[in-house]
Amino acid sequence: MSIMGLRGRLARLSIMAVVPMLVGATSLTNNLEQRVLAAHNRERDVTGVPPLRWNLALEASAREWADHLAATGRFEHAPERPRDPQGENLWAGTPGYYSAEAMVDAWVREKRYFKPGNFPANSVTGKVGDVGHYTQLVWRRTTQVGCAMARGAREDVLVCRYNEPGNYIGERPF
Question: Rounded to two decimals, what is the model's pTM?
Answer without folding.
Answer: 0.83
